[in-house]
Hints:
Distance between the termini: 52 Å
Strand order of the largest sheet: 6-7-8-3-9-10
Number of helices: 10
Low-confidence stretches: none
Largest sheet: 6 strands, mixed
Shape: globular
Number of strands: 12
Order of helices and strands: EEEHEEHEHHHEHEHEEHHEEH
Oligomer: single chain
Amino acid sequence: xxxxxxxxxxxxxxxxxxxxxxxxxxxxxxxxxxxxxxxxxxxxxxxxxxxxxxxxxxxxxxxxxxxxxxxxxxxxxxxxxxxxxxxxxxxxxxxxxxxxxxxxxxxxxxxxxxxxxxxxxxxxxxxxxxxxxxxxxxxxxxxxxxxxxxxxxxxxxxxxxxxxxxxxxxxxxxxxxxxxxxxxxxxxxxxxxxxxxxxxxxxxxxxxxxxxxxxxxxxxxxxxxxxxxxxxxxxxxxxxxxxxxxxxxxxxxxxxxxxxxxxxxxx
Length: 267
């Protein structure tokens, strides 16, 4: 479906501080899209606007041609699942945490989970390889394990759209690849539409099929990794000298940094 998720002339921000303006993009159903840009470019502000943590100043956000601001809390939670950077590591088991993803599907005055709810929670914990840690408390898990459990909880909502706010920021390279391989698998096998803020340009290029690049609170450009991840765009947006080449296996762009010492040696 074209324009499955669409942002039109969107602006939001803080009363006395930073704001983003006139953001416009749409992603197709089943896309794995990423939002990239340097610190202070508006990535997190845009994410807070999309999740409605920040109120829109103008514009609209449409899911299946329905303005999400007109959806009830439960309707939004049944359609959109959110995974943030930091997980509240509560003193509950991983299984209890994942099962909370079924709350939007509960009927009025129904306080207990059904057999179906338990089956869905187990299904997605097995898919995310977290079933083995179901009896561990959340505050006993590593950062990477908490991210995987949080993704399992999001999937248990059975959403159409998965929003992730820099899910690999605090992880080592092993867990970064583990988390992104999982998200890519969910995107491929479930047809789940993914919109992710991601800091690392090489990870964004390798895993996403569509990118939105932000600069100074505005949308600088958008397109496929091969259209977006080039030295001209990166130097213009990040104000940093880079070299871009092609990954010989995936044919996606790869970014190489150049130190000041190396640049000075070339003069």
